Amino acid sequence: MKNITVLAGGVGGARFVRGLLSRLAAAYPADTPSGSSVAVTVVANTGDDMWLNGLRVCPDLDTLMYTLGGGIAEEQGWGRAGESRRTSAEIAAYGRGWDWFTLGDLDLATHIVRSELLREGATLSQATEFLCRRWRPGARLLPMSDQPVETHVKLAAAADEHAAGDLVHFEEWWVRYRAGVPAAGFVQVGLDSATAAPGVVEAILEADAVIVPPSNPVVSVGTILAVPGIGEAVRATAAPVVGVSPIIGGAAVRGMADACLAAIGVPATAAGVGFHYGARNRGGLLDGWLVDTADADAVPQLEEAGIRAAAVPLWMTDVPATTAMAAAALELVPAPAPS
Ligand code: GDP
Ligand code: CA
User: Fold this and answer.
1) What is the pTM of this model?
2) What domain count does the chain have?
């Protein structure tokens, strides 16, 4: 085992990768910055990105960077530890921006530096690499694309100044409305002209294992897979593709992923999401799918559908629990021996 590639959203993806790095450091110890001889590449969803107050904000990349770099507000799951909100309050006093989307003072520095680099002509990949020199996340962090691809939600009902049928930015639906306004669907604005960022397709094709962590299947993993070339690479790679269920006992563990699944007609169950990704040997993506022990009933159905499955505890309550989950994911479908 030399290379592992993970397709990640924000909080669920970041916590899983932290456990994965801890597992690899224990199983494949080496004198490298990550503590392991296995290189991890994280392909991050950038569908939640936006320009806000003149700054490029990349919520999932930053959650990954802060979580893996030791700067995350742990309980909250996103944003910086020890954060304050003085600048946001000042911006709100001017009546600018989104008063329901707070940018913390420390976090703003990241957005300012990123925006400066982008304005100087850097790509998002280059800006991300630059920011990671400070945070040293222990994994290579790649945006899914260097072109802007922004998820918008088609509202199925009116809300405030929006009529039914309007498209709003994903963050407005998610943060302002807490996904409480029914969604008729999701549109990735910019997808048609987007390409996978440099290194992404190679990282998937050359991996010894590809992992789909317990990230939102629709607006995190689904968006990554929709980028031209990425879904195709996941289907084509010789590496086993193993996923971890973000749904336990019929509910999203945190957040409102069930509202996203409802919008695309996928049952919010561990098996439902596994079938949504589908079995690789039947045109889908997955060789293996881990479900929680509460969903052990789904294992025989998944296996019958051609997906190797196992039930293990999937609550990422702390790093040791998440390390054990990562170990189970790596063991579910072992990588083929090198030829
Ligand atoms: P986001 O971009 O911050 O929303 O994060 P992700 O897309 O990476 O992951 C969000 C999903 O992670 C949520 O919808 C949950 O279903 C899932 N999740 C969060 N915590 C846990 C956990 O402890 N265990 C499992 N299995 N899933 C989790
Ligand atoms: Ca996200």
Assistant:
1) 0.97
2) 2
